[in-house]
Amino acid sequence: xxxxxxxxxxxxxxxxxxxxxxxxxxxxxxxxxxxxxxxxxxxxxxxxxxxxxxxxxxxxxxxxxxxxxxxxxxxxxxxxxxxxxxxxxxxxxxxxxxxxxxxxxxxxxxxxxxxxxxxxxxxxxxxxxxxxxxxxxxxxxxxxxxxxxxxxxxxxxxxxxxxxxxxxxxxxxxxxxxxxxxxxxxxxxxxxxxxxxxxxxxxxxxxxxxxxxxxxxxxxxxxxxxxxxxxxxxxxxxxxxxxxxxxxxxxxxxxxxxxxxxxxxxxxxxxxxxxxxxxxxxxxxxxxxxxxxxxxxxxxxx
Amino acid sequence: xxxxxxxxxxxxxxxxxxxxxxxxxxxxxxxxxxxxxxxxxxxxxxxxxxxxxxxxxxxxxxxxxxxxxxxxxxxxxxxxxxxxxxxxxxxxxxxxxxxxxxxxxxxxxxxxxxxxxxxxxxxxxxxxxxxxxxxxxxxxxxxxxxxxxxxxxxxxxxxxxxxxxxxxxxxxxxxxxxxxxxxxxxxxxxxxxxxxxxxxxxxxxxxxxxxxxxxxxxxx
Lengths: 302, 220
Prior knowledge:
The complex is a heterodimer.
Chain A: H1 8-18, H2 22-34, H3 38-60, H4 73-82, H5 90-107, E1 111-113, H6 123-135, H7 139-159, H8 164-167, H9 173-187, H10 192-204, H11 222-241, H12 250-263, H13 280-290, H14 298-301
Chain B: E1 13-15, H1 19-36, E2 42-49, H2 50-58, H3 60-68, H4 81-87, E3 91-96, E4 105-113, E5 116-126, E6 129-135, E7 138-142, E8 148-154, H5 159-169, E9 174-181, E10 187-194, H6 200-207, E11 212-218
Parallel strand pairs in B: 2-3
Antiparallel strand pairs in B: 2-4, 4-5, 5-6, 6-7, 8-10, 8-11, 9-10
């Protein structure tokens, strides 16, 4: 037996009984499973954090994908925030803009860190860099944020799925939003159990989310789903910190997500055959980009 | 456990837009290149499921070619993989298949040069993690999580014992092992995942064993 936890119940129990944060349990498990040193593991996560920072910076300068379907929205949201008129408030909209920034870089074939996937790569860093302004974490705490996200993602990946093709978008932006919510709770001083509650609250509201990329590109609706995933993560974290609990235990929520994913028709699992991809406009965009659905990959890859 | 490391979840660092369709695909290509042992001159890539439907939009095609050029998931050159392959004189084609595969993200690569041909089927299981499920007609499950030895040999008694003795002598622990053969007495394949890195001396020793015809390695 070389694994400390295989579900959320075990993860929370370990953290509580040893009086350690979830991030620490994840680091210990990584040492155990990979036989690498703690320093190597933390250094690699530090590097991933740097990649995330650079992607957000690049996205906030305004990037556009080769298809022209996405780009520039992160800049728009930042400008709007600067007017002071945001209804949701700066933390939520900052997270939204930074999630969008990362995903716009991803759509433009830029360098990103998958969290847990590339299509959902905006949510964990977007929320992290937004709450950073509010909570003033140390670099170590920011790295721990990623380990806590990873601990919950690890459970989802091994007990359900983090692939849109296997489980729909609930497995990608759903997992990412839930992972981020759990990590926000830890950074804000909540308990391991509150992290689990935040995870559940968010995941329950992502269940059934289909993966229907227009023209098969990771652009529409992926970028905006990253935006909403980031907003949900913050709301879910705040609810858990307020003491709200999920009536359905986290592991059962994850199991429900897995079963829903398996029962989804393949048209709604990243095949670009159903949902928004199959709308008249979705089809028209596909024809415009690829010419009758058949292809000129230079259009995408140039 | 399909996913063993936190960096399967927070990572890989990669070129977008899709971890399963771009990074996972690049890794399948790179594993094929590593097992082939040299730059292939040509590649025929069959795509199944979601790979077949969306490979252009996800850059799955350029990623696989990038992998065959030995590029990592975060190598900026992935974007120019087609042009880079052409410069090397490598030809390639992509064939989207309608039939259903074991996994929605499946690629079957047939690669070769004047010296030989190799066929490998890989699945991208999410978040950039992949598994090799078939090699030259042999079903197997190779995750790339551990350093691995792939040993093609004649199906004779004592070969497995000789190989495991050579590994044991170096105090290397076997994590997982699979043995399969095409026909009784014919060509066979051993896949051995180990905990430690594999050095050249061990490969040389294994290659010199009777009835061993080819040894390939895969570092994690």
